[in-house]
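Dear H.,

Thanks for agreeing to be a second pair of eyes. The structure we're designing against is below in token form, covering all 254 positions.
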């Protein structure tokens, strides 16, 4: 479902209208405030509040599954670290090929999936041009049924799995190497949604001259916003806030 722009006398009223139209609860949507509106003077010249509402990805049952996910990942981490220590600390001669990196990473992911008793497969694809610029060698997509536990809220579990996969990969290959991990194309869909959001919000900023603040995002998603609008002739981006409340603000160039 695409995002929905709604107006109301107040932000709260606009949110309530959006939830009614979407048939969702507040926890099931992400809200970006385009304008908080104004009351005007004596009721004259007022402006409605405007918001952009987008449904969130289906939430994973994190509390029920996070512990077994972490246990399985930790077991694989320990296996990879122990294997690396037994091989010694010296660097491996030569540089591993892209095929060796991809095959080793796929084996690591398959071990994690087996530990979780998930019926899933790993598909390997060439990394996109943007991913290659970020240092990724290949793109591994996990496909199967009921894999929400591997994504987590806002893709946090997926990000952790990717980090740990690359950590083990580096230990085994004795070289720093990175692969991009995805589940049922979630990352690809999310990145495309963020690019569309960045373009839409930049057009709004360019039209109104008013900065727009997006919802809190993890670092990898903020980076997509920054990269999408990098070099834009009329707007600039910056991040502010702390921890998981860090946000991107899109502002007109001065």
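And this is the sequence the design step returned. I haven't edited it by hand at all.
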């Amino acid at each position: 479902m695409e995002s929905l722009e709604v107006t109301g006398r107040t932000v709260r009223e606009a949110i309530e209208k959006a939830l009614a139209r979407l048939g969702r609860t507040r926890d099931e949507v992400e809200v970006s405030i385009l304008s908080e509106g104004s009351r005007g003077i004596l009721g004259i010249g007022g402006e409605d509040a405007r918001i952009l509402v987008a449904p969130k990805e289906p939430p994973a049952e994190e509390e029920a599954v996070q512990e077994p996910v972490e246990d399985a990942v930790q077991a694989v981490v320990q296996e990879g670290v122990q294997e690396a220590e037994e091989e010694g600390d010296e660097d491996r001669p030569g540089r591993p090929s892209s095929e060796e990196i991809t095959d080793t990473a796929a084996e690591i992911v398959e071990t994690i999936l087996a530990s979780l008793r998930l019926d899933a497969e790993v598909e390997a694809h060439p990394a996109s041009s943007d991913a290659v610029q970020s240092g990724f060698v290949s793109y591994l997509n996990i496909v199967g049924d009921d894999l929400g536990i591997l994504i987590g809220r806002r893709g946090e579990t997926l990000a952790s799995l990717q980090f740990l996969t690359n950590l083990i990969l580096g230990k085994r290959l004795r070289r720093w190497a990175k692969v991009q991990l995805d589940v049922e194309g979630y990352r690809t869909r999310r990145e495309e949604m963020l690019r569309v959001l960045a373009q839409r919000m930049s057009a709004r900023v360019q039209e109104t001259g008013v900065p727009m603040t997006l919802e809190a995002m993890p670092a990898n998603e903020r980076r997509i916003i920054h990269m999408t609008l990098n070099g834009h002739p009329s707007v600039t981006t910056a991040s502010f806030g702390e921890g998981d409340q860090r946000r991107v603000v899109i502002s007109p160039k001065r």
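Two observations from my side: Residues 59-65 have pLDDT under 50 and may be disordered. The chain has three domains: 1-56, 62-184, 187-254.

Warmly,
E.
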